[in-house]
Structure formats: C-alpha cells, structure tokens
Amino acid sequence: MYKGTNASAGIGIGKVTIVEEQELVIKREMVTDSAVEIQRFKGALEASMKQTEALAADLATRVGEKEAEILNGHMMLLADPILTGEIEGMIQNDSVNSEFAIETVCTNYADMFASMEDELMQQRAADMRDIKTRMQKVLLGIQSVDIASLPEGSVIVAKDLTPSMTAGINPSNVTGIVTELGGRTSHSAILARALEIPAVVALTGILSQVKDGDRIVLDGSEGMVIVNPEDEVLAQYQGKREAFLKEKKELEKYMGRPSVTKDGVCVELVANIGKPEDVDKVLQYDGEGVGLFRTEFLFMDRNAMPTEEEQFEAYKKVAVALDGKPVIIRTLDIGGDKEIPYMGLEKDENPFLGYRAVRFCLDRKDDVYRPQLRALLRASAFGNIKIMIPLVTCIDEYRAVKALVEEIKAELDEKGIKYNPGIQLGIMVETAAASLIADIFAREADFFSIGTNDLTQYTMSVDRGNDKISYLYSTFNPAVLRSIKRIIACAREAGIMVGMCGEAASDPMMIPLLLAFGLNEFSMSPSAILRARKMITEYSTQELQAVADKAMSFATAQEVECYMKEFVNS
Ligand code: PEP
Ligand code: MG
Questions:
Q1: 187 annotated active-site
Q2: Which of 12, 157, 209, 405 would disulfide-bridge 198, Cβ 3.0–4.6 Å?
Q3: Does any ligand 1 atom lie closer than 6 A to the CB of residue 294?
Q4: Closest ligand 1 atom number to CA of residue 390
Q5: pLDDT tens for residues 116-166?
Q6: Residue 71 to residue 508: CA distance in whole angstroms
Q7: Mean pLDDT within 16-31
Q8: Neighbours of 494 (CB within 10 A)
Q9: How far apart, in whole angstroms, are the C-alpha atoms of residue 254 and residue 530?
Q10: Does the beta carbon of 134 sit less than 6 angstroms from any atom of ligand 1?
Q11: Residue 367's closest CA among 308, 293, 303, 295?
Q12: Is ligand 1 within 6 A of the CB of residue 331?
C-alpha cells in the first residue's frame, strides 16, 4: 500500500497505463557510414509523417477539422525539402547521428522563428519543436501515449500530468490517476476533480513499483494506492466504491434547496470552471452561479491566442446558460505553473513571484488585455458577468485595470455596442500584500474572492507544488487563518461581497470557520457543491462563533485541523 496526497475523491479500480512523456537526451555521436544513417533518418521521417497523418485524421473526426489543421501544418514542415535536405547534409558532412542533426537543424529554425515578433512565426517555432521531438522519438523508439483514447478501465500512472494532458483525458475510459509529482491544488488535480476522476498525487517512486497492465486500486479521498491487490482487498474496495457512489446519490436530495444555515444566514454556493462546457456540471450540481471562471484554459492547448470574438462567444455562452445568476470571470492568470508556450514568456527564475497574471496583462494591454476586457464587456450584455483581477498586490494595479475598463466602455459607447454599464470589477485576494491592505482595496473594489491556494503559498512562503515542503502548505495555519478572517472582516465592514474560490472553500473542516467569519460566497468544483450545502444547512453561525474562537486560539495548523476534525465528526 502506498500513501500519496488525496487529490480527487472516489475509488478507482483498473489496469495500470503508464504515461511517460520523458525528456529526450540527445547526444552527438559519430557514425561511420553516413549513407546508412541517412536511410535511418528517412525511415524515421516517413514514420513520423504516418503518425502525424493518423493523428490529424483522428482529431478531425473526434474534435474538428479546425483542430486537425494544426497537424496538417506539421505534415507540411516534415515534407519541406529544405529542412530535410539540411538534416541530411549535416549527417553527410559531419558524420553525426540523425538525432543530433535533427536537434541542431530544427532548433536553429525554431530559435529563428521564435525571435520574430510575428505571432504566426512564434507558432511555427512551437510546431518546429514538436516535429523535432516526434522524429527523435521514432528514432529512439519512444512511444507517445495518446491520452484521449486509452482503453476502458485505465488507471493512468505518470510522473506528472500537464493541465492540457489532463483536460484531454476521456473520463469514460480513465477510472483513476496517480502521479509522482503535483499537489492538491496543482491544476491537473483541480481538473481531475472537475472531471470527477479519482486521483492520488505526490506519490514519489510509484512509477518504479508498477508496470503496464498491473491491477491497481486507488482511494482518491484517502490518497491510498494498492498495486496488484489480493482478491479480498479488491472486493473491499469495490464495496467502498459502491458506498461512495451511494452517498453521491443521497446528496442529490439537496438539489434545489437554498444554501441557508439553521439561523437563517443565506450564502451563495457557486462553482469554479475552466471551460464553457463545464457549465453543464454547474447546472447538474445545482450551482448558484460561477465564482471563478479560470480563463487561462481558453488559451491553453492551442497554437495562438483565442481572438476577441472567440472569447466573447465563450463568456457569452456561460452567461446565457446561467441565466442571470452571477458569473465571475477572472482575467488571464498565466505564469507560475500555468504556461502558454505561444505567449513567448521567458522562464522566470522565480515563476510564482514573476512576470505573470495582472502584471503580464497590464504590460501587454494591446494584444492581450484589451481584447479580453472588450470580450468580457460585450458578453456582459447577455448575463450577470463580473470581472475579477488575479494576483493583485497594490491598489495601482486595480486602478490601472479600472481605467482600462472605463476606456473600453467609452469605445463601445462610441460604436453603439451594448454592455452592462454597472459591471462589477473585483479582485482575488491571494497575496500577502493584498490581504494586509484589504481595507484599502475594500474602498474601491466591488467584491473580493479569497484565493486560498495562492494566499497559503504566499503567506507561508511555500511553493504550492513542491511536495518536499508540503507539510508547511496548510490553510489551517494560524497565519493563513488570521489573514482570511481579517480579509472577510474588511469586506464586511465596507459592505462588499466576499467569497472564496480557493480549494479551502469546499474543505469540510474549513466550512464551519468560514461561516463563523462571515463569508458570503463559497466557490468550488461543481461536484463538491451538494456536500457543502448539506453541511451549511446543519450549522448555525451563532453557535459556530465559539468554535471559531477556540480554533483561532491554537498555535499550530495540526492543532486547528485536529480540533476541527473532532468538531465536524461529533
Ligand atoms: C487560488 O489561488 O486560490 C485560486 C483560486 O486561483 P488558482 O488556483 O487558479 O491560482
Ligand atoms: Mg491563484
């Protein structure tokens, strides 16, 4: 039995499929017969073209012609006689191995494209790197796993999954995910919860304990993994699985009920989403709106930025589907662990403290921020959209975004384009700085949403994805709890709405504390909403005051958590 971090609830039972996207190590090697090596290269080129062709055909039927176009572009690059001629020339003249010649020639081209300002050229650089890896993988005999078409009953075991890989998973085939890296709040874990696939992460060394086809059981609520279990253990987990699904069924009776405490305090239970399609899940679980739409997912998994028009359609779709219920849309929050290759962001020394989120957007007003804000304003004519700014640290940033929004409103007025003139502009409170001056922000911002995933990271100075120091990453730490309590108090004093969209908002041990502090809105993965509603209806905020006072008197996160566990289970 192995213990990792619980990342997405539920029991997964199935067969291991190892997903390995290994980093290629390309060495320069001398070859004695260049003619034979050129034949080897030609063989790899042909195989790569066949692979690409098959991928394009599959993508065209499964997703659409437009998406398949990207791969048709790769075919053209592979068929380019100048490129292949240069590679063959290098093998011939320098007597080097194909892998090295491909590395050198393709990287030269990719770097040249990447140095040009033009967006299309940036795209071509990414494409060039892609075909380079594909050819090298063929030569090295490394199989790429097609994550979207794994066999039914697969449990993915991987070093790590990128958010775009996780998004490509087909939940009807994948019954579980186990990774060596990542944490509860890494974006692949958040996506696993959205897809309702049980997941265990941060399980160091698991790859050396399994092989393809092994029987595997995972408990995503407890963070447990068992490889090749005995029959009776398997039966026990099958029972657990049924119980989990039964509880899920029971929670359905909370559908359509108000989210109100025993003493009549009404809160909003809303959902976190990443794509317009996620709205179906919000409605399925009776979400009262959207508390966080992470728009960066619209920018991922593609070769160029979505246009203003595409963004407008995406935001409008969510606003219309929610039919007047609040929809908080967060402007682009990239950087940190969320990379978008075509944006041309250089790797920061310190990505979480670097050039990202609102800092990046305010620096790229014309090509990034204006189109997004314009799309949001235009979509606001079709529903109850609110705009939220991520990673704010000082009031100047808020004012700069506000001024930009006002400018765009004036442009829209001039053109007679409709939008909601009263649209709210709020902030994520997720940095230590924003928390410390929450009273100042509360005078100008229309609402707050506490991002505990980052607030914990920045308050505790602990990288949210680093499992070596994950023992420090706890929202129950008195430092983080004091910060949360004060942020809520500042918002309440100023009379603005205060919500929470970090993972803590759905933590059963945290919910009673947040109710006592006076949180107005809880935003979480859609599948967590009904359990949260059940809890909320069982408490009285009056009675919770003493519990919160006691919890705040402890010195360590462990003591708070233990106390809350005892209280919740009593
Ligand atoms: C947060 O930081 O709590 C949050 C909700 O945003 P993200 O997880 O996307 O950084
Ligand atoms: Mg954040």
A1: yes
A2: 12
A3: yes
A4: 6
A5: 876 667 667 777 888 898 899 899 988 766 787 889 999 999 987 765 566
A6: 45
A7: 88
A8: 17
A9: 6
A10: no
A11: 308
A12: no
| Alpha carbon separation from 183 to 201, 214, 295 (Å, rounded) | 6, 24, 21
Question: Which residue of the set 106, 187, 361, 490 is catalytic?
Answer: 187
Catalytic residue (one of 106, 361, 490, 501)? 501
Q: How far does the centroid of ligand 2 lie from the alpha carbon of residue 11, in Å?
A: 28
**Full-model pTM:** 0.69
Taking the CA of 193 as reference, the closest ligand is 1
Query: For residue range 281-326, what is the model confidence (pLDDT) as tens digits?
Result: 899 999 999 999 999 999 987 889 999 999 999 999 999 999 999 9
Residue nearest to atom 3 of ligand 1 (CA): 451
The pLDDT assigned to 57 comes to 79
CA of 444 to the centre of ligand 2 (A): 21
Kindly report the length of the chain.
570
Tokens of 480: 């983080």
Among candidate residues 388, 501, 397, 386, the one with its CA nearest the CA of residue 440: 397
Q: Which of the 8 DSSP states describes residue 386?
A: E
Asked if residues 475 and 456 have their Cβ atoms less than 8 Å apart, the reply is yes
The residue whose CB lies within 8 Å of the most ligand 1 atoms, and thus the one to mutate among 430, 456, 473, 480, is: 430
Q: What is the token pair recorded at 366?
A: 């014309």
Whole-angstrom distance, CA of residue 20 vs CA of residue 451: 32
| Residue in the block written with tokens 């004093």 | 493
Q: Is 290 helix (H, G, I), strand (E, B) or coil?
A: strand
Which atom in ligand 1 lies closest to the alpha carbon of residue 451? 3
Tell the residue nearest (CA) to atom 6 of ligand 1.
Answer: 451
Protein residues with C-beta less than 5 angstroms from the ion ligand 2: 430, 451, 454
Alpha carbon of 84 to those of 38, 44, 102: distances in Å? 10, 11, 9
What's the CA gap between 7 and 221, in Å, rounded?
7
d(CA 516, CA 27): 61
Give CA separation, 401 vs 29, 294, 299, 434, 446, in Å.
54, 18, 20, 16, 13
Q: pLDDT tens digit string along 34-84? A: 999 999 999 999 999 998 888 777 657 655 565 567 678 888 999 999 999
